[in-house]
Design goal:
By secondary structure, the chain is of the alpha+beta class. It contains seven helices and five strands. It binds FE2/S2 (inorganic) cluster (FES). FE2/S2 (inorganic) cluster binds next to helix 5.
Length: 157
């Protein structure tokens, strides 16, 4: 099956498998992102068709929410907490060091496509601060060396 038709099938499945009683543009976009981890341009057009709305109406919703992403993430998503507790205990040093290691400024994907670095305002594990999460799995009590070691292990898999 060509890659694009596979993508379309996944999008259609995301749209049609919504179980809540009220289906909206927002719920449709959330369903696509939950399944694909991003919203491809085909996701916008299929959502428009599915909801009986225009592409512009779907874009106006999609572009409003900063949690939607429109490019594929890296193979692993690394959340670095910079909430108050983690910040006080050295999160900025961890962030600076990971960005240097991944050769990126701010959030984003490493060039090898293996890592997406994201900031998080609290991972809910303040007692273990400073924290990072790899694909939602928390690693607490981090410093720049331990966080870097975890990232390098992932990249070298
Ligand atoms: S502030 Fe970092 S886990 Fe809560």
């Amino acid at each position: 099956m060509p890659e694009n038709s596979n993508l379309l099938e996944k999008i259609k499945h995301s749209l049609e498998s919504q179980e809540q009683p009220t289906v909206t543009i927002l719920s449709s976009l959330l369903s696509i992102q939950d399944n694909l981890h991003y919203i491809p341009s085909e996701g916008i057009s299929e959502t428009a068709k599915f909801c009986g709305k225009s592409t512009n109406e779907v874009w106006s919703v999609a572009s409003f929410y900063t949690n939607f992403r429109f490019t594929p993430p890296g193979d692993n998503v690394v959340d670095v907490c910079w909430g108050p507790t983690c910040h006080l205990l050295g999160a900025q040093i961890i962030i600076d060091n990971l960005q240097k290691t991944l050769e990126i400024d701010g959030e984003g994907e490493s060039k090898d496509g293996k890592i997406t670095l994201k900031y998080n305002t609290c991972l809910g594990a303040c007692a273990q601060a400073p924290c990072i999460a790899i694909d939602h799995y928390i690693h607490g009590k981090q410093d720049k060396n331990t966080a870097n070691k975890i990232i390098n292990e992932i990249r070298n898999k």
